[in-house]
Write a structure and sequence with these properties.
about 240 residues, alpha+beta
Length: about 240
Amino acid sequence: MRANINNMKKKILGLVFIITAITLFSCRGQNKTAVFPVPNSGTLKIDEPNAIGTENIIETQNGPVRNLPLWLSAFLDGGITAVESLGDYNNKYVFISLNEGENFNALTKWAEYYRTTQDFSILASARIERRFYLTTTLFPDDEYGEFFEFVVKRANSAEYPGVVKEDTHWIRMRRESANGFDSLPVYMFFILTTIDKMNMQTFVRNLMTQTSAETTVTVSQNIAVNRLRQTFFEGF
């Protein structure tokens, strides 16, 4: 029974990220956007370490691959958790956005006009939503009622204090396909944003407090909500 529940949970997590990908990816002929808001879970290959093999990189913003910024090297090798373990970021939550395509100028504009006040909430709400899924046995709306839905909605429209757009970096790489490599290499632009851990935790706790006061849940759901609020940032 436990194995079946775990399998169901993995499928749900995968579905969440597939839906996110559908929402954030544009058509093949246009630039495609992916968001990496959380540590690796293995639910999608693109979230795993080495999903972007450095052996396929043919050009970078700083020249040779060995000149990649430390945060990007860590991300390509070990995901978000590896970046957050670096000394410069161990008191911060790290979020990385990726946009890829063949049009360098369009991607440059995307990075230039990326705004933390508008774009960060997508990253944050995805990370918050995933935390709910990782703590539930089956469906978060069954366990937490409308509290789950309302928290995620608030998180998606909120403006988070103290978010910093730390760095932007691009690489150019060969894209592998079933028949070998695609004919044209693609550019991949990465945007690194961070937020102080204490700021983020205080903001989310306040958000959950406000939501709890405005939602109706059953007795069992209220117990689950209170338990989650006490442990939410363990593994966040």
